[in-house]
Amino acid sequence: MTASPNTLEPGDIIEIKYRVWRAAESGETLVERWIAATVTDCEDGSWPLARLADGQVTEIRPFMPWRTVMKARRAIAA
Question: What is the number of structural domains in the chain?
Protein backbone atom coordinates (compact mmCIF):
# COMPACT_ATOMS: atom_id res chain seq x y z
CA MET A 1 0.00 0.00 0.00
CA THR A 2 1.38 3.37 -0.93
CA ALA A 3 -0.73 5.44 1.46
CA SER A 4 -3.51 5.33 4.01
CA PRO A 5 -7.09 4.84 2.79
CA ASN A 6 -7.72 8.25 4.44
CA THR A 7 -5.80 9.92 1.58
CA LEU A 8 -8.20 8.63 -1.09
CA GLU A 9 -10.71 10.88 -2.82
CA PRO A 10 -13.61 10.11 -5.16
CA GLY A 11 -12.28 9.80 -8.70
CA ASP A 12 -8.89 8.35 -7.70
CA ILE A 13 -7.84 5.35 -9.78
CA ILE A 14 -6.26 2.54 -7.75
CA GLU A 15 -5.33 -1.10 -8.13
CA ILE A 16 -6.25 -3.65 -5.46
CA LYS A 17 -4.31 -6.90 -5.11
CA TYR A 18 -6.49 -10.01 -5.09
CA ARG A 19 -5.51 -13.65 -4.78
CA VAL A 20 -7.53 -15.91 -7.07
CA TRP A 21 -7.49 -19.64 -7.74
CA ARG A 22 -6.68 -20.71 -11.31
CA ALA A 23 -7.06 -24.14 -12.86
CA ALA A 24 -3.74 -25.71 -13.81
CA GLU A 25 -2.71 -29.09 -15.21
CA SER A 26 -1.59 -30.24 -11.77
CA GLY A 27 -4.72 -28.95 -10.00
CA GLU A 28 -5.33 -25.40 -8.85
CA THR A 29 -2.79 -22.70 -8.21
CA LEU A 30 -3.05 -19.41 -6.33
CA VAL A 31 -2.37 -16.34 -8.48
CA GLU A 32 -1.97 -12.74 -7.31
CA ARG A 33 -3.63 -10.20 -9.56
CA TRP A 34 -3.93 -6.38 -9.49
CA ILE A 35 -7.45 -5.24 -10.36
CA ALA A 36 -8.19 -1.64 -11.36
CA ALA A 37 -10.81 0.30 -9.40
CA THR A 38 -12.19 3.83 -9.18
CA VAL A 39 -12.82 5.33 -5.76
CA THR A 40 -16.49 6.35 -5.65
CA ASP A 41 -17.18 7.47 -2.09
CA CYS A 42 -15.17 8.59 0.95
CA GLU A 43 -17.08 9.50 4.10
CA ASP A 44 -15.77 10.13 7.61
CA GLY A 45 -16.21 7.11 9.84
CA SER A 46 -16.48 4.54 7.03
CA TRP A 47 -14.18 2.71 4.63
CA PRO A 48 -13.72 4.25 1.16
CA LEU A 49 -15.78 2.55 -1.56
CA ALA A 50 -14.40 1.65 -4.97
CA ARG A 51 -15.94 0.25 -8.14
CA LEU A 52 -13.83 -2.55 -9.59
CA ALA A 53 -13.20 -2.88 -13.33
CA ASP A 54 -15.86 -5.63 -13.51
CA GLY A 55 -18.50 -3.35 -11.93
CA GLN A 56 -18.51 -4.77 -8.41
CA VAL A 57 -18.26 -2.37 -5.47
CA THR A 58 -15.90 -3.05 -2.56
CA GLU A 59 -14.80 -1.35 0.63
CA ILE A 60 -11.09 -0.55 0.82
CA ARG A 61 -10.03 -2.07 4.13
CA PRO A 62 -6.65 -1.57 5.86
CA PHE A 63 -5.65 -5.22 5.29
CA MET A 64 -6.10 -4.95 1.50
CA PRO A 65 -2.94 -4.25 -0.50
CA TRP A 66 -3.59 -1.44 -2.95
CA ARG A 67 -1.66 1.19 -4.89
CA THR A 68 -2.53 4.52 -6.45
CA VAL A 69 -2.50 4.66 -10.25
CA MET A 70 -3.79 8.22 -10.69
CA LYS A 71 -5.17 10.88 -8.37
CA ALA A 72 -8.50 12.55 -9.16
CA ARG A 73 -8.28 15.41 -11.65
CA ARG A 74 -9.34 17.97 -9.07
CA ALA A 75 -6.45 16.89 -6.81
CA ILE A 76 -4.00 17.27 -9.72
CA ALA A 77 -5.32 20.74 -10.56
CA ALA A 78 -4.94 22.01 -6.98
Answer: 1
> What does the chain look like in DSSP terms, one character per residue?
--S-GGG--TT-EEEEEEEEEEEETTEEEEEEEEEEEEEEE--TTS--EEEETTS-EEE--TTS-EEEEE--HHHHH-
What is the model's pLDDT at position 2? 53
Global pTM exceeds 0.90? no
> pLDDT at residue 1 above 50?
no
pLDDT tens string 17-37: 999 888 888 888 889 999 999
Report the distance separating Cα 58 and Cα 35, nearest Å: 12
Phi, psi torsion values for 34, nearest 5 degrees? -90, 125
CATH of the domain at 67: 2.30.30
